[in-house]
Amino acid sequence: MTNAKLRVAAMHDTTMTIREMCDAYDVTPRTLRFYEAKELLFPIREGQNACYQAGSCAPQLILRGKRFGFSLEEIRQLLDLYDMGDQQATQLQRTYEIAQARLQDMVEQRDELNEAIDDLKEQLKWGEKVIVSMTKTEKAAE
Questions:
Q1: What angle do CA 101, 103, 109 make, to 5 degrees?
Q2: Cβ–Cβ < 8 Å for 12, 5
Q3: What is the CATH number of the domain that holds 24?
Q4: Domain membership flag for residue 98
Q5: Which pLDDT does position 13 carry in this prediction?
Q6: How far apart are CA 94 and CA 73, in angstroms?
Q7: DSSP letter (8 states) at residue 27
Q8: 23 belongs to a structural domain
Q9: Does pLDDT of 80 surpass 60?
Q10: pLDDT tens digit string along 17-42?
Q11: Are residues 21 and 35 in contact, defined by beta-carbon separation less than 8 angstroms?
Q12: For the whole model, what pTM was predicted?
């Protein structure tokens, strides 16, 4: 477990400052404010300062969702399902559905990328042959 995760675990029932959140999740204050604006995070306001619930799993879910290519709107909708009163069954089911669709998209993108890589390799082989041929022609002309 990283130091940041240990700090989060140790502060489970406390609040964290914006700086502590940035350190714990390796994000910038601008990122946290952006997530607030998108209604993904809801800090507790103490005067001018924003504090975050240390035990919240929202930042981790947001970052994981982004890593997997979920849209911010999908992430927001999934976070909204947390308090449905069904022990997160609805949230888990919807997350699973979105993840299945995202995985299919990623597989298709990978296949398209592999095809493009193979095509580029073929073009490079052709280009190499042309360059070698041109070099041989220049040497013969000298």
A1: 105
A2: no
A3: 1.10.1660
A4: yes
A5: 54
A6: 13
A7: -
A8: yes
A9: yes
A10: 899 999 999 999 999 999 999 989 98
A11: no
A12: 0.67
Co-location of 85 and 51 in the same domain: no
| CA proximity to 96, closest of 78, 117, 73 | 78
Our count of domains for the chain comes to: 2
DSSP 40: S
19: tokens are 């700086």
DSSP-derived pairing of the beta strands 15-17 and 44-46: unpaired
CA atoms within 13 A of residue 82's CA, in its CB half-sphere: 10
Q: What value does the mean pLDDT take over residues 50-78?
A: 90
Contacts of 139 (CB under 8 A, 6+ apart): none
Beta-bridged to residue 46, according to DSSP, are: 49
Lookup: tokens for 78: 């999934």
Is 73 a member of any domain? no
Residue 62's Cβ-count burial label (10 Å; 0-12, 13-18, 19+) is buried
Q: What is the dihedral of CA 29, 33, 34, 35, to 10 degrees?
A: 100
Task: Report helix, strand or coil for 49.
Answer: strand
Domain residue limits at 38: 1-57
The structure tokens listed for 6 are 């240990």
**Helix, strand, or coil here: 15?**
strand
User: One-letter amino acid identity for 44?
Assistant: I
